[in-house]
Amino acid sequence: MRDYPAHEKLNELLDANARFDLMARGTTNHCPMALVALAGMGASPARLQEFFDMWEREYALSAPPVDTIVSRHEWSRQLGNAGAFGALRLCFLDWIAEAGSVPVIAAVLEEVPFAPATQAFHALIRLAYGIEAAHPGEIASGLAALISSHLPIDARFDQARTGENVEAGFDNVVRAIDDSVVQGNSITSRLRAVAGDVRFRQAVLAPPVAVSLLDDLARATINAYWRSPDFTVLHTVTATHAARILLAQLPDALAKQLLPGLWIALCAAYATVRKAANVETESPDAVVDWDDVCRMAVASNDDHAIKLAYTCLCEDRRNPSPLYLASAVRIVRLDLEKTAASQFAPTRNACLTSYFFDRY
């Protein structure tokens, strides 16, 4: 987002996104998150506009009128009230204008239980991307989503039962659920099912003692995703990166207080997918570089491919691993294959697919 015209366009489109509902056709509103990720990978103002127009045409739902006022002293009463998103957004936006974003974020997260699994982790991701874009409206929207769709995972762990490492903690809850079919036709519904399962609550170990639990979580989630590219596991990769952005803004004591909630939410996510079969994984192709991946991701209309590629780029910059590049290559390549297979694929994407396959 160093390109000033692109940053201007990003702000313009994030402002325009306020006319969209929290939900979209068959999904949640991924548009602002994808826009921030696209801008971070070098998308031009024209490309940002093109993605926004596509989203509005194919997925967006109009935000309902806001006919109630939520006071900044009463917002916590709307916890779990999905219909209060718009009013909460306006409440937080007004509060941020007066006090600044970080004090408001801290005040909200200190008052209610941290629920990073809310909206299948998308509320957390939206808040983090709003922080990254320094966009008050998106910060307010992320907070409003966390409160109105609040999904706490009510599990406690015994500090005497600590996972040897992150993978061991995930594996313990996976084995506790065993081969049971976790009911639900969405990530959120399956998270709810696991959260209510006594086997899960009994199996949650305390997080491993580590200098940086977030770094360990980042390594574990990208390792898991590379071995088995499950859709839910993808969300644990992007959510862990989002948590890094969010917690970096907060006082150390509050960030430490919130980490157990993230740990439990990620354990629940892994419990929903059980032990997925590993896929055959090729060694990362040294010919591919991040400039290539960013070009492919910027050409994509798949919001999850865009966000994962961006997450991998950011995490690789911080703590390099060949799995970040390899995972990003795999998902953009699959997206381009799907695009090329469609008879309605835009000529531009078909040409990019040919370029990609010719080289890689």
Helix content: 55-70%
Query: In which order are the strands of the major sheet placed?
Result: 2-1-3
Order of helices and strands: HEEHHEHHHHHHHHHHHHHH
Would you tell me the structural class of the helices and strands? Answer: mainly alpha
- Biggest β-sheet: count, sense, barrel? 3 strands, antiparallel
Give the N-terminus to C-terminus distance in angstroms: 28 Å
Q: Which percent range describes the beta-strand content?
A: under 5%
The backbone outline, from C-alpha atoms, is globular
Radius of gyration of CA atoms, rounded to a whole number = 20 Å
Number of helices: 17
Q: Quaternary status of these chains?
A: single chain
Mean pLDDT: 91
- Overall strand count: 3
The structural domain count equals 3
> Which spans have pLDDT < 50 for at least 5 consecutive residues?
345-360
Protein name: DUF4243 domain-containing protein
Organism: Paraburkholderia aspalathi
Pfam families: Questin_oxidase
InterPro entries: Questin_oxidase-like (IPR025337)
